[in-house]
Amino acid sequence: xxxxxxxxxxxxxxxRDPMQMGFWEGAAQGRLDIxxxxxxxxxxxxxxxxxxxxxxxxxxxxTLPGSGSVVSYVWIPDPGRPPGFPSHFYNVAVIELDGVEKxxxxxxxxxxxxxxxxxxxxxxxxxxxxxxxxEDMGLPCFTRAGEA
Length: 148
Known about the structure:
Blueprint: H1 21-28, E1 32-37, E2 43-44, E3 59-64, E4 67-77, E5 89-97, E6 106-109, E7 125-128, E8 131-132, E9 138-139, E10 142-144
């Protein structure tokens, strides 16, 4: 049997804010979609009405390659884990994304196949591995590149 994915228990669904729905909908389809300014081309996350580089209010969604590097991470205890889970901890990681213009762009996520302290390190390469939450909402998570 495959090892279960390492996500926190009891996690609520994301907010259905119309400004953020493109992010969640992309992840439901297995993509990493983030905002990109129509005027200067800068990518940005978190979602916002205006460009943090040039101030433009014109933007659209852009699909990134879905790869990046771990910048930082922390292990968090999760006492609600069912019996049989390999760890009583999950990780929260800061991922610097590849393929951005006028970056860097970093998101807070989870490395699904990291279970032990030795499974993560700063600089480690990761690949997109979305978790479908509902038909139209997914969570962009990652797995260790070239592993599992």
